[in-house]
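$ ./design --mode recover --in tokens.txt
reading tokens...
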């Protein structure tokens, strides 16, 4: 392998560049990012200082086998955070940008960034040409798609009130100053939206609604070691759920927090997921995933305290939807749509249309091998085209958070280069 091109310069793109640059066989790494800066991407581009990471800082290193790297960088830059603490997300975005800039500096011409949008990939058996919106093109031996999360579907757009289809779009929440706001979704995005709006407009009321009305749980103030994980009697969803129930009962008996049991299962998730039948995966998504996700993706304690105070004051209500017309604005916080859904990425649409990529069996993401090689319409793994990040969700359920993306980046680089 000589030339690697990474498309997308968010967390996944940076982690891919770090891992690829570490391989001696790679002559050049080019990151194509359409926005101003490589590093923050969508998740860590938020300017609001109260938007905190939902993982402890000690788990957020961008460098494999250097767990303390983010913590040490934060201390050196005058914004210290303890390994068990929760840093602002924008601080993490600055960190990722610094990691990338340092790599560019240290590798003197071997690692570079191109500010442009990749709009097409012409694939050959042993290489590719990446076409750019600006008219240019890049020759590559390996291409890594690190395109990130698609925007939400934009539910609520038919309500006859101000509708915000994508709360992450720049300035999307500007001008919502008073009245009562309906937020569709009760997950972490709703919490970002509710805290932002109520901090800015003290008289504003927020009602959040979803099918199950489940709110993310909170992290423990002091971390505890992860539990032992599951030993299910077979690879079915039923066996997994009963093994997990058993663990929770044991934890309760022994006075250990449930958070430890969830954290103990996390490293097993992709192996357990791969062994499930497609029918069981579908049943998990439809019936179990929401409950799992609110326990797995938890709020920082400070955020949880703010949410509790808002609920006690009646400024945030979590309740079933009655009449959307009673609100002055409706905001879609239901989270990203499926990566495989058409219409959000010209690049991905083209790859699926030409048969170079296909949706996974559940239609959530893109079908890839365990190392991230993209499968074509016939199911053959490409030696050239790879994918990293949330788009792997259907094949690897745990693929959206930094600790997993970092591991996946290292495995991808080893397999691809
Ligand atoms: C609000 C939010 C908060 C989160 N908080 C945490 C957290 O605290 N801890 C954690 O571990 N995980 C968190 N996550 C999970 C998150 O998915 C990952 O941590 C990570 O940020 C995903 O990065 P990414 O690079 O895959 O995607 P993105 O951040 O979406 O970046 C993708 C990048 O690709 C670029 N791009 C896309 N298509 C093209 C193209 N065709 N040409 C050029 N550029 C392109 C985009 O401009 C963008 O910069 C959070 C996610 C969200 C949405």
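writing sequence...
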């Amino acid at each position: 392998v000589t030339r690697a091109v990474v498309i997308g310069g968010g967390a996944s793109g940076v982690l891919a560049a770090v891992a690829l640059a570490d391989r001696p066989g790679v002559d050049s790494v080019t990151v194509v990012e359409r926005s101003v800066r490589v590093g923050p991407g969508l998740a860590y581009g938020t300017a609001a200082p109260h938007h905190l990471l939902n993982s402890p800082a000690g788990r957020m290193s961008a460098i494999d086998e250097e767990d303390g790297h983010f913590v040490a960088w934060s201390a050196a830059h005058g914004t210290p955070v303890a390994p068990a603490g929760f840093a602002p997300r924008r601080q993490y975005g600055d960190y990722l940008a610094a990691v990338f800039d340092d790599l560019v500096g240290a590798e003197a011409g071997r690692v570079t960034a191109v500010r442009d949008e990749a709009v097409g990939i012409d694939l050959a058996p042993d290489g590719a040409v990446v076409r750019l919106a600006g008219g240019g093109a890049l020759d590559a031996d390996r291409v890594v798609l690190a395109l990130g999360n698609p925007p939400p579907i934009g539910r609520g757009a038919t309500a006859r009130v101000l509708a915000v289809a994508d709360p992450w779009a720049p300035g999307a929440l500007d001008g919502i100053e008073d009245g009562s706001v309906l937020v569709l979704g009760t997950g972490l995005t709703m919490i970002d939206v509710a805290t932002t709006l109520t901090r800015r407009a003290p008289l504003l009321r927020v009602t959040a609604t979803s099918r199950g009305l489940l709110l993310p749980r909170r992290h423990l103030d002091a971390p505890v070691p992860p539990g032992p994980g599951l030993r299910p009697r077979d690879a079915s969803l039923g066996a997994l759920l009963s093994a997990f129930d058993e663990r929770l009962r044991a934890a309760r008996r022994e006075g250990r927090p449930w958070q430890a049991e969830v954290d103990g299962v996390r490293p097993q998730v992709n192996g357990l997921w791969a062994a499930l039948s497609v029918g069981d995966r579908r049943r998990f998504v439809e019936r179990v995933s929401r409950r799992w996700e609110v326990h797995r993706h938890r709020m920082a304690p400070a955020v949880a305290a703010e949410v509790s105070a808002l609920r006690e004051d009646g400024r945030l209500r979590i309740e079933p939807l009655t009449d959307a017309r009673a609100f002055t604005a409706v905001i879609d916080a239901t989270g990203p749509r499926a990566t495989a859904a058409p219409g959000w990425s010209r690049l991905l649409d083209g790859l699926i249309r030409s048969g170079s990529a296909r949706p996974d069996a559940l239609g959530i993401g893109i079908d890839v091998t365990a190392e991230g090689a993209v499968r074509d319409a016939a199911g053959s793994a490409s030696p050239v085209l790879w994918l990293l990040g949330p788009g792997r969700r259907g094949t690897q359920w745990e693929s959206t958070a930094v600790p997993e993306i970092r591991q996946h980046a290292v495995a991808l680089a080893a397999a691809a280069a």
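exit 0
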